[in-house]
Amino acid sequence: MDKQYNFKENEEKLYKEWAKKDVWKPKGEGKPFVMVIPPPNVTGSLHMGHALNTTCQDILARYYRQKGRPVKWVVGTDHAGIATQTKVEKALLKKGIKKNEISKEEFLKHIWLWKEEYGNQIIHQLQRLGASCDWSKIYFTMDNDYQEAVKTAFKHFYDQGLIYQADRVVNWCTRCQTSLSDLEVEYRKENTKLYYFKYDKDFPIVIATTRPETKLGDSAVAVNPKDKRYKKYIGQTISADFVGQKLNLKIIADPMVDMKFGTGALGVTPAHSLADAELAEKYSLKSIQVIDRFGKIVSNFSEGLKVRKFKGLRAIEAREKIIEELEKKGLIEKIEDIKHNISICYRCEREIEPMTSKQWFVSMKPETRNPKSETISKSKIQNKSLRELGMEAVKSGKVQFVPKKWEKVYLNWMENVKDWCISRQLVWGHRMPVFIKKQATNLKFKIKNLKLNDKDIYVGDNPPEGFEQVDDVLDTWFSSALWSFATLGYPKKLDKKYYPTTVLSTARDIIHLWVSRMIFSSLDLTGEIPFEKVYIHPTIYNQEGKRMSKSLGTGLDPIELIDKYGADAVRFGLTLLNTGVQDIKFSEVHILAGRKFANKLWNIARFIEMNEMNRKFLISNFQFSLNFQNPIYNLYFNKVDKLETETERDLEQFRFGQALERIYHFIWHDFADKMIEETKQDESDEKMVFLQTVFSRLLNLVEPFMPFVASKLKSETRIPKF
Ligand SMILES: [Zn+2]
């Protein structure tokens, strides 16, 4: 053995061996232990959260493999619609290629090329960390088989009457040109102005708004029913000439209105505010589109916006003009500086423009399951809504969250879940398998709120003549929701040997986006729960308690840490910090401790080896029995037994940090400091067998946590394998 443990050389050699196709295919008998890795974005690179989550999963995989269970750990990547598209768009721009100057097909070609070239970076990074996934197949959410799964699932939901198209105010990014789910919207505090003004000189109520330009589309003024100031106007419709646009404003009373904000009177803009759209539905208000999908004042006047002088202006330019005009007319009462939470796109950080558009939805409501034909059975799912299915799975204990507190978070979310907007106006993604009759498509542009007839829609693979496919692609989470079973044979033949899976280990911020949708999709499409346990790992913060993020400059690159300290050390450090009790404040000290521990293990092995060589001891010559003459040795095995039992119990309960800490202390402070020291004088053969046997068992305990050094010591020293 070398004097020093060379982690670089050892890890380099081993991870290449472990990355081979068939190394981690499930073997053995008994109840399989199955996990699907949360598929990282194909364009992504490893961050600390991945490193922690992958370590947790690998500890379980290696531990249960050691116990003899067939372990299947499914791996692959997600096509990550908007994230990938934005990344490739930026890369192309650097080469001087603009997305809107090339065809859709060309752009798609660029994305696939990009994926081939850079897409597997994260897979290599997972391998460097030592992840023992089943590499014989690396899934991708845009593979042909996966596309089949997506189409089948879509058709199933459609046939169940759960998919519908509707006009909705959605979060719209005028740069990415797509709708975003509420969960894809982020917030930023900004200084802005709150304008107090009247629509015209005769209008009796002063309203307050941060966005005067949208007031061109107002159809009501909302006040609180308790507000005495406005009581006499409630129920009236008052006309106003707002900078040239004629408005008919209904005065409505709704408890939702905050009496203390502004003047307590709100201009209601159904086309450009989610909250106002809800009011519009409640009080049957007209919706007038003011801003188009590029963030400019609309040029198409058929929708109700008659004033022409602002057409084509960017919203902010129109705002300035309107304020100027209101000031001239003396209609402005005051302008206040306020700090305001604005919503921004999570990809490009541009301000969100709430906008009405036609989108497709999956219904979560109980009354909506309504099969399209009588041959479609409802029996398997007993006519339950997706929401009910999702809630029951957890309430009944069939799916359990660890730590348990996340069940409440999950159930609260499901309790109030809204219909799921599944259409995105992107190029990269699963194109919706929806075909619409051509005449109907044309009509759609002429008549607003036109409800498409079932006969005008075809869902599936072989549309009849005269139908054309819609351009929208599906929300990335629609395909991710199928991950646990689309990777295990669905829709052809679900592999019941491995399904339902055993454990899903993931981050808390995707409980809503992903975990919930995987649960109800699996139940509805396969009749099975997707996994028995959901382990929600802690979040890693830096020393100041800030989120680790590369873009904020508060992140650390796990690969750099692996280069510096070794993968074992990184795994050790992250695991030791993961006690499951609270979130992790990351410190490099723990990783350094991991490197020291790897060296310690090496030194113990060397000590044993040297002892052996000095005495020309050959283990094969020794009559092996675990009955030692020296009672101290016999007693010591009880301690090791206990350590093994405690480790098993800890890992069953996902107490990774506690398990590792106990093993670490035992090896360092009990085995090395006491046992080896105290028996230095004993030169018997049985001591050699004793030390080697104990060390071998201890290495088995270390292996799931620090597989590189443990494997090396197990394979290359003469420690017997029992
Ligand atoms: Zn954007």
UniProtKB/TrEMBL annotation:
SUPFAM superfamilies: Anticodon-binding domain of a subclass of class I aminoacyl-tRNA synthetases (SSF47323), Nucleotidylyl transferase (SSF52374), ValRS/IleRS/LeuRS editing domain (SSF50677). It holds the Pfam family Anticodon_1. Transmembrane segments: none annotated. Its main location: cytoplasm. Keywords: Aminoacyl-tRNA synthetase, ATP-binding, Cytoplasm, Ligase, Nucleotide-binding, Protein biosynthesis. It comes from the Bacteria. Residues 638-713 form the Methionyl/Valyl/Leucyl/Isoleucyl-tRNA synthetase anticodon-binding domain. GO terms for molecular function: aminoacyl-tRNA deacylase activity; ATP binding; valine-tRNA ligase activity. Residues 14-587 form the Aminoacyl-tRNA synthetase class Ia domain. GO terms for biological process: valyl-tRNA aminoacylation. One of its GO terms (cellular component) is cytosol. It is found in: Cytoplasm. Its EC number is 6.1.1.9. It is an enzyme of class 6 (ligase). It catalyses: tRNA(Val) + L-valine + ATP = L-valyl-tRNA(Val) + AMP + diphosphate. Monomer. Belongs to the class-I aminoacyl-tRNA synthetase family. This is Valine--tRNA ligase.
